[in-house]
Amino acid sequence: MQFSAHQIATLVNGSLEGNPDVMVEQLAKIEEAKAGSLSFLSNPKYEQYLYTTEASIVIVNHDLKLDKPVVSTLIRVKNAYSAFSMLLEVYNKMRLDKTGIENPVFIHPTARIGKNVYIGAFTYIDKDVVIQDNCKIYPHVYIGENVKIGNDTTLFPGVSVYFDCVIGERVIIHSGTVIGSDGFGFAPQDDGTYNKISQIGNVIIENDVEIGANTVIDRATMGSTVIRQGVKLDNLIQVAHNVEIGKNTVIAAQSGISGSTKIGENAVVGGQVGIVGHISIANGSQIQAQSGVNRTIADSGKKWSGSPAAPYNAQMRSQVVYSRLPELERRLEELEQLLLTKELSK
Amino acid sequence: MQFSAHQIATLVNGSLEGNPDVMVEQLAKIEEAKAGSLSFLSNPKYEQYLYTTEASIVIVNHDLKLDKPVVSTLIRVKNAYSAFSMLLEVYNKMRLDKTGIENPVFIHPTARIGKNVYIGAFTYIDKDVVIQDNCKIYPHVYIGENVKIGNDTTLFPGVSVYFDCVIGERVIIHSGTVIGSDGFGFAPQDDGTYNKISQIGNVIIENDVEIGANTVIDRATMGSTVIRQGVKLDNLIQVAHNVEIGKNTVIAAQSGISGSTKIGENAVVGGQVGIVGHISIANGSQIQAQSGVNRTIADSGKKWSGSPAAPYNAQMRSQVVYSRLPELERRLEELEQLLLTKELSK
Amino acid sequence: MQFSAHQIATLVNGSLEGNPDVMVEQLAKIEEAKAGSLSFLSNPKYEQYLYTTEASIVIVNHDLKLDKPVVSTLIRVKNAYSAFSMLLEVYNKMRLDKTGIENPVFIHPTARIGKNVYIGAFTYIDKDVVIQDNCKIYPHVYIGENVKIGNDTTLFPGVSVYFDCVIGERVIIHSGTVIGSDGFGFAPQDDGTYNKISQIGNVIIENDVEIGANTVIDRATMGSTVIRQGVKLDNLIQVAHNVEIGKNTVIAAQSGISGSTKIGENAVVGGQVGIVGHISIANGSQIQAQSGVNRTIADSGKKWSGSPAAPYNAQMRSQVVYSRLPELERRLEELEQLLLTKELSK
């Protein structure tokens, strides 16, 4: 795919300085760009690179003043970062634009497939599945009985969705992620063995959710495990049965949420965090990486850290003293010696 | 699937109060049940919901006394929770009842497949594999050369089992789990590079084991990585080469066990726990979530917590003081000041 | 596969004591070996087993002196461990030797496949993919548009490689691992929602890298996430966008590296370690399991531990005092009492 400076200026509604016919075929950061690349300058910290970059085209802010001449063709716009982001998105859409049904696939005759859908080879679609319009279902995806998938949703290769789960519109799920596997529920018996508790609920994923690769969301025992609208989950996350994650909450990689816990809206959870079961986390909570949350957080909008998690500032203060513990012990011993000496000298 | 109150009363051997012809088609918790649902009441805490629920049928304990009339049809049994659990299981078995071999599949001519087996489309079964009766092998499963699988075992979509591994009877393995990948063994060389140590052992999974989604169990360098009878492993767990996990031990999500470690029987390991290699964990040990166990636990039946893991009660006491560390330091400083003043005033 | 003692002695260039015609068909540790097994003795600690083992053949060091007669046929070599390792490798190569293209597969007509390649059934190879000679691509592998794979590389079942990624020579990637999924990048909006930032970079994996099962390496936002030559990654690891991991660095299972962080060469990272984004880790750093690294490590070759990570020795000293915190508090209270009594007695 090749574009001229003129075409790009039109696309971003910008004004052009330099050669309108120069062609680009890739996007790159200004400090790494080679000839044939389109780049952008937004952060003034990087302005130096404008005079050394090999980029054929650079998108810059309207009001940028040049210290010396530049080799690249410039396109001036109101907000260079936004314009470039928009081009990234256009580029990605073109790269990933696929439609049609490849062969072989397994599609149960009762499944209903919408318009303008891509279904990759070796994908399996079971009984009574509904896939709405403009979905992209990549190769090796498994979609169990009675699953419903809304418009414009993308499932990348190797995603598995167990029966009865519901996925909204504009959802993106990356490779290897499992939706609707059995919750971890076992009843201990007198002889030390465990009986499996059947997990007959489902998973509901609302609109505009994105889920990373190799994440697992277990189905509810009864009822639903629910991922609310706009939630963003990273890779390798564990979401246990009957969990609910509130609107626009973001969770980083390798975190785990135990059964029946409810996380509020607009919370931010760092990587490798563990949250115990049957508690609630208030809206807007910010939980630092590697924290272990072991009780309900009722106050919204607070920052937490550590395992067990404590208010961030208190945790930081304890942490600082922790690093001085050997010194603290020594000072305590000195006081003890001092007092002992006094006692003895009496 | 629809059932009448009469049919269900017969199934659970209960006595019926109300309309024997009312039909249900789903199972639900009493506080969430809609018309057409079957529910149950076991915990007295939820008794209030009996008078407001829209459930068409509620299973209750034999001796329940009604405070006022109820709309739902009641089925009285000795133990409402057990009766409902049994119905859950029956329901799930009916939902997941599949047999036959779909198309296309890859089955090597030397593989032996038992009676009444389900093999989903796009599943791959290599040379000399044996799959016994009543197994369910979902789509996209990979079963390598010479793998043996016992009766009544279920492999959900996308499970991979490398060559020579052995899986027992009534085992359940969820999507994306990998059995028998190479252990992480490398010999450091003088030039800073590493030579791979070939991993030629296997994995043995005994009867009645359940393994969650996207878990990994590495094959032994030589000999076997062994998961003993009745073990339950959650999602995203790491089991390294030559590990042995004892009978009826339960391990929660995202925990990792390093190479050659032996975990005893009836242990309970929380989520995100790390256990170093080449140690043993005594029978019945209880290891709290996010613990890091770095040495052998010889005493059976004890509770451990923290990283490095320590006896639970000691850990809790240290934790409490940790949260007061800034105060402790301040008190120490006050004492120092006090003594300094005294010294000076002498 | 069966081999005689004579054949093996020839293979390892050893001298034979005992029956040259005895046959073996498996490899085993000396303390577990049955008749028909080949074993080795290298560590003097295991010498006792030489007199009780049922192994048909044992490879021993040239200078081993026997205390009493042995039943096994012995093969004497310069270095028993090296000779046995070499046999392991030969055995494994023979076990895993596959070539040819199975059916059905999906191979785009523009893809170029080298000589002597194995491609398993149900594997998907998209437009403009290049796979060089002697590669083994197992079943259920997904290789996206324009991916390049060097000679002698093995992708185990269910690996997914997104478009534009580049994989070197002699690379091994285990089942379920995802290469090139989108980095976790979202721009917060004023209404609390997030806009996805398109991730148009790729992943570059250099020669001689091995990656475990169910690991995830995200593509760069722009540019490349880079795994340098000789790196060894274990299972269930998270590598975020734009990370770079230096030559011959080894990372154990379930560790996570956040966006844009650069890890140096010959570093060793334990299991369940978390490393924050946008920092550097010096060459040769050794990071203990479960550490949390939250700032740049500039000094090379040092050992780190804890969360937040601190120099290993300091961390160990603080840890020891931590376990005595309740005692420390009690001693502090005693001093306070003592001083209070004194004050009052004045």
TrEMBL record, chains A, B, C:
Please state the Enzyme Commission number of this protein.
2.3.1.191
Instruction: Using the record for this protein, list the coiled-coil segments as residue ranges, or answer none.
Output: 318-345
The catalytic activity, as recorded, is: a UDP-3-O-[(3R)-3-hydroxyacyl]-alpha-D-glucosamine + a (3R)-hydroxyacyl-[ACP] = a UDP-2-N,3-O-bis[(3R)-3-hydroxyacyl]-alpha-D-glucosamine + holo-[ACP] + H(+)
Q: Which GO terms describe its molecular function?
A: N-acyltransferase activity; UDP-3-O-[(3R)-3-hydroxyacyl]-glucosamine N-acyltransferase activity
One of the GO biological process terms: lipid A biosynthetic process
Keyword list, A-Z? Acyltransferase, Coiled coil, Lipid A biosynthesis, Lipid biosynthesis, Lipid metabolism, Repeat, Transferase
CDD domains (alphabetical): LbH_LpxD
Top-tier EC class: transferase
- A GO CC term assigned to this protein in UniProt: membrane
Oligomeric state and interaction partners are given as: Homotrimer.
Q: Which family does it belong to?
A: Belongs to the transferase hexapeptide repeat family. LpxD subfamily.
UniProt protein name = UDP-3-O-acylglucosamine N-acyltransferase
- Source lineage: Bacteria, Pseudomonadati, Bacteroidota, Sphingobacteriia, Sphingobacteriales
